[in-house]
Write a structure and sequence with these properties.
By secondary structure, the protein is mostly helical. The protein contains 16 helices and eight strands. The strands form three sheets. It has a three-stranded antiparallel β-sheet with strand order 1-3-2, with helices on one face. The termini are far apart.
């Protein structure tokens, strides 16, 4: 029992095992005694008892050994459990210390934030208290000021009423005076009120005209002072930066003939060769009494040039008959087609124009054989393109677009002999069909003011076109057209009121107008100059610009005797 008690104290599992072993031993002994008592004698019983005792001793030893072993295992288990329990307690204490430190830091940070917030609130409350005191003072000052203003308003109202009453009395007195004065003036001048009113309005009208003329003069002079220098600088720079030929190759309509024999061969028997030539080439051949020359006439410059070259080759070849004429004309036509394409491409390269449709490039090449006042249109287009680029760069616009607009502005002249309408409209429609931009279309269609201007590039093209056409030696015109233009220019000025004499000088580029000094004063001379310039611009077509100079001279003559 003591062993079992000790085992129960050490480990319940060991105690249970020992009890089972002891109980088994007891049952075995009892069974053995019971069995021996029935079958054996007393001696045998003693022997058996000794054997049982010996076995009991062995069992006891075994039980003690098992008990020692179980006790050792229990002690080892207990030590292990205690070690684990201590380690776990240490870990729990460390975790608790860490959590406690973290909580303490958080509490300190929260306490610090609360303290800072409290300080800010305290400062804010102090500021609000000061502002409240200031507002109370301002409110009191405002009430005092308002009371003072009311007192002043009452005094001013009284003064205003008195002033209005005085003004009313003075106005009544003035009305009576004006009425008496008007009646006295009517009596003295012997005029009716309507006549006096008309006279006053006429005087006001004259005064307004004088003032309007003075305003026009001042505004015009100011605009001229501001714009003249800059426009002159841009124009001169554009002209100086472009060195163009003064004479350009143009199409001729005459072919030199070696002699009368060749002229006869060209005519042929009963005019057979010349009729075949005109039918094949589509031109008119004029053979007159002028020695050594045959004239070719045609509205199409390309066809005229092709026919002239065909005739030159016929003369060099010497074989003049219808079959040879047709053969050479086809050959020259193919060569001229290739030349036109090459002229167009070369011009695009020279003008640095990219992305043109092949039809547009070819049409520009046809301008090589087109002239205006003796000026080659293709060279003129290149010149205008470069001038547009320079002017646009000076004005801060896109030089590439300006160059393209200037290059294509006269493209309609390559087709105006084939279609109805002016070359601006024809060129604009052609460019529109071939995908040109709105800036180019407006410049092509509006460079002669045929349509409203929607982009600044149109005005640039107009200026560059005028510069190219007005350049000395660029164009020429017939004597009849020149005289007619001068007569029209002088007639416009002579039709104006107050004009005494008119002189067109400097080949029609300046118009000098002498006015009657008794009919026009200095101010109205500015109005007259502007009206003449506007009428000339509206009614005449001319290259470049025309300067209008109005002169008024007063002379007083006396004789000393």
């Amino acid at each position: 029992m003591s062993a079992l008690a000790t085992l129960s104290e050490i480990n319940p599992v060991v105690t249970g095992g020992a009890a089972v072993v002891a109980l088994g031993v007891g049952f075995a002994i009892a069974f053995f005694i019971f069995k021996s008592s029935r079958s054996t004698t007393e001696a045998e019983a003693q022997k058996a008892a000794g054997e049982i005792k010996r076995q009991a001793e062995e069992l006891k030893k075994e039980a003690e050994a098992a008990l020692s072993k179980a006790k050792a295992e229990a002690e080892a288990t207990t030590k292990s459990a205690e070690t684990k329990a201590r380690e776990q307690a240490v870990r729990l204490r460390e975790d608790f210390a860490k959590e406690t430190e973290s909580t303490r830091k958080e509490l300190e940070a929260s306490r610090k934030e609360v303290k800072e917030g409290t300080d800010r609130l305290t400062k804010r409350e102090e500021t609000l208290d000061k502002e409240r005191e200031s507002l109370v003072g301002k409110e009191k000052q405002l009430r005092d000021t308002e009371a003072d203003v009311r007192k002043r308003e009452a005094g001013i109202t009284d003064q205003l009423n008195a002033a209005q009453e005085l003004l009313k009395r003075r106005q009544d007195a003035l009305d009576r005076f004006e009425s008496e004065k008007r009646n006295e003036l009517l009596r003295i001048t012997n005029m009716s009120p309507d006549d006096a009113k008309r006279e006053a309005l006429a005087a006001v009208e004259r005064e307004c005209q004088n003032e309007a003329g003075a305003v026009i003069k001042r505004v015009t002079e100011q605009a001229q002072d501001e714009a003249k220098d800059k426009a002159l600088r841009i124009t001169l720079q554009a002209i100086q930066r472009y060195a163009s030929e003064h004479t350009a190759e143009s199409t001729t309509a005459s072919v030199d003939i070696p002699g009368d024999e060749m002229k006869g061969r060209i005519i042929g028997r009963e005019g057979r060769n010349i009729r075949s030539f005109e039918k094949i080439t589509g031109v008119d051949v004029i053979v007159d009494d002028t020695p050594g020359v045959v004239t070719i006439s045609c509205f199409d410059p390309v066809r005229r040039a092709t026919a002239a070259e065909t005739l030159r080759r016929l003369i060099d070849d010497g074989r003049v008959h219808p079959a040879r004429i047709e053969e050479l004309f086809k050959q020259v036509t193919d060569e001229f087609t290739a030349k036109i394409i090459k002229f167009g491409k070369d011009a695009c390269i020279e003008a640095n124009i990219n992305g043109l449709h092949p039809r547009v490039s070819e049409m520009m090449g046809r301008l090589y054989y087109r002239t205006s006042y003796g000026q080659n249109i293709l060279r003129h287009s290149l010149e205008v393109a470069y001038l547009c680029q320079v002017i646009a760069a000076e004005l801060g616009l896109d030089p590439a677009i300006a160059r393209r607009c200037g290059f294509l502005h006269d493209i309609g002249k390559a087709m105006d002999h084939e279609q109805e309408g002016g070359h601006p409209a024809i060129g604009m429609e052609f460019c529109k069909k071939n995908g040109e931009k709105e800036e180019v279309l407006n410049a092509v269609g509006g460079h002669h003011d045929d349509i409203p201007h929607t982009t600044p590039y149109t005005a640039i093209v107009m200026a560059a076109d005028a510069i190219s056409g007005a350049r000395p030696g660029a164009r020429r015109e017939t004597l009849e057209k020149y005289v007619k233009r001068l007569e029209q220019l002088e007639g416009i000025a002579k039709a104006m009121k107050g004009v005494r004499e008119v002189y067109a000088i400097q080949a029609g580029r300046e118009l000098r107008v002498i006015v009657d000094p008794e009919r026009l004063d200095d101010v109205n001379c500015h109005v007259l100059a502007r009206d003449i310039a506007k009428k000339v611009s509206d009614e005449m077509n001319f290259p470049g610009e025309i300067k209008i100079s109005v002169m008024r001279e007063m002379r007083t003559v006396e004789y000393a005797r």
